[in-house]
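Problem statement: downstream parser choked on a complex file, so we are re-checking the raw output for the flavin mononucleotide run. The parser issue turned out to be on our end (a line-ending mismatch), but while we're here, posting the original submission so the record is complete.
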Amino acid sequence: MQRWLSRTSSLFSVRTHRRNWTQRAGGLVEAELPANPMLLLDEWLAAALQDGHIIERGFVLATSSAEEGPTARTVVCRDVCEDGSITFGTNPNSLKGRSLRDEPRCEAVFRWGTRQVRLRGTCAVDNDNTEEMFRTLPRPARVSLELLHPIGQGNDVSEAKHQELLADVEASSLDPQTPPATFTAYRITASTLEFYQSLREDFIVDRFLYVRDGAAWSPPVRLAG
Ligand SMILES: Cc1cc2nc3c(=O)[nH]c(=O)nc-3n(C[C@H](O)[C@H](O)[C@H](O)COP(=O)(O)O)c2cc1C
């Protein structure tokens, strides 16, 4: 018999995963869904943020490349745009930056409690947005990006060097306005968005798929959960 530390059966209660916003939320009804899925994404983000924190804007970005295969990590969603795109900021030389150069198709997965949005699309550097995105970061974040720049994300750093950096960031009076080469804005233009929520005791779920149709969206289609 396998020894286990925790088991799904001991956690598998819808109530455990319910949060205030899901208690307020009703089921999704096809006729009431917006024609533009970005409005629903923005509404779900706002609902999550009401009870939460900026980190509710985090999503898992899955990329793939011939060399590295599939990889995934969390990033913060900076903009949700009506035209069907979202933005985030990162280092263009990071693993995700390199993967996206090789294969721009990617998937962004948002999850709050028992709600999930999967946005599939194509990602590109968004140079026009980089400076403004950088300037709207809190000052300590801009300072640390500036001071970390010479080391480069993901490189080995000794504990002593790390402690030195922490002290430097704290002591710094810098107020950088120009992004270092290690910070770039990216934009994912969606081709599909899938909304999923599982709020019921019987686990019958709401799952809707929007598919881009030129500049507009096909009407959302309900999918089996
Ligand atoms: C809550 C959270 C938010 C994050 N936001 C970002 C972000 O906006 N941009 C970023 O480059 N990394 C962010 N990270 C760090 C990434 O998950 C990742 O560790 C880093 O970017 C290196 O990823 P890569 O080597 O796959 O490119 C975040 C991590 C967490 C846990």
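For whoever reads this later: The mean pLDDT is 89.
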